[in-house]
User: Fold this.
Amino acid sequence: MRGVGVCAGVAVGPVARLGLPAAVPADLPAPDDVTAEATRVREALSAAGDALDARAAAAREHGRDEAAQILDAQAMMARDFVLADRAAALVTEGNAGVHAVSTALAGFRAQLEAAGGYLAERAADLDGVRDRVVSTLLGVPLPGLPDPGHPYVLVAEDLTPADTATLDTGAVLGIVTAAGGATSHTAIIAKSLGIPAIVGCRASESLTDGTAVLVDGADGTLLIDPQDDVVATRREAFAARRALAAAHSGPGRTKDGHPVKLLVNLGAGEDPATAAAGDVEGVGLLRTELLYLDRATAPTFDEQTKAYREIFAAFGGRKVVVRTLDAGADKPLPFLTDPDEPNPALGVRGWRTSWRHPDLLDDQLRAIAAAVTAVEADGGAADVWVMAPMIATAGEAARFAADAKAHGLRTVGTMVEVPAAALAADALVSACDFVSIGTNDLSQYTFAADRLQSELAGLLDPWQPALLRLIQMVGAAGAAQDTPVGVCGEAAGDPLLAPVLVGLGVTSLSMASGSVADVRAALAIRTLDECRALAATALAAADAAAGRAAVAAAG
Ligand code: PEP
Ligand code: MG
Assistant:
């Protein structure tokens, strides 16, 4: 089976599929024995509490404290005696256990939502508890992450943030999803956790629990019942890649010493302290949505300042590029995004959100500036750069730069995600201290192809010559004006493509931390002229596959 490999590595193990929530039958007969049914409901709730506790302990053991906290909260909800009493009372009134639990939990959910703030954010966690208890009562497999009692290859249609939040990196050997592309949530999370993964693998829908598979996240192949010699060959190839990576360290540079900053992308799910401990030169994309997701209101100025300050301090004077809030389209926020927008990807998203909510951007810029001041007041250093997402014109870039500078922020730039911005690269670069190309969205808008649709993965391939041509225009504008040009989309983490990007004039690459070592090695074995020659080869190719093959063959 083939898909898109998104995190290199070889995983071998039995398949376990993500469980789907059971449908609750609309009419169920009233229980014959209400006392026995009420006991069944109490036992199911208590069993859910025990299972969630065990998961929390496992998550904690693997250093996933945030996941452990969510699971702790769910376990507490399952054990809440008021909830159990309410459900039991509903059974006594003649409701089937499944309906009693669903109704009782729906009541709790409404109360949490009405309370607002932190409690409202926990409301969705109740759905996880409900789905688990309902499945137990119906006697069907549990929904969510499987727990077969041994390590497994996780196979799913796709994974949501709620699924991955509690993913146990000790148990999940590999990830395979039928949907998704190189820029999907699953891809980003798999890379940040360093789990070999393949996305957009339609054929994986036919895989059943227990089937032995090999997942090769480097080339996106999945083998069923692999022979020992095949496993050994795949593992050796991966080990060779690792050995090459291990032979190089420190700041990124080509063989002839041309510097290329190697940075990491940080977002929900990545621990800043762990990322900072790596051999990286800083953060090239701080996805600040992580502070706004799963919330009913925007984080306060103080909450934001605290979070930014911790991240800046963790990177101790290394560069940190903060992207201002990128709400809308694939990153909807309930309190900001208009659910009735006819075409959200082309709507009021990214920086445009600040047209309607200027206060939000203002608060965010103030908080970033305050965090810099706080770190410096502590005797630390913070090299903080700020950029806006979804900028389309040089005028917009200038407006954002003026706003950010008015808050005392020193280094201000914009992302290049809209073809218009790349086509006007000269003017855009003049308005900025730096630019950073978001190849995920730039592909989406250049090819009119939704980045979340796996069917369109071919169009979204970053080796598309038309995309590379836009990157070349931005690289040339940056070089002419001596202005840094970064790439922070998923393309930056492809070790075969990285030399091509450098050859097109890119001066920094920002990626998942797990990709840095391979990219560093790929640059260290080529001179800048060789990178330029590879770029010319990729640009001249008839299509993405031909470009990739020609560059691989050129070595
Ligand atoms: C991009 O679009 O390439 C990018 C880096 O931003 P995001 O993936 O967060 O939209
Ligand atoms: Mg983007």
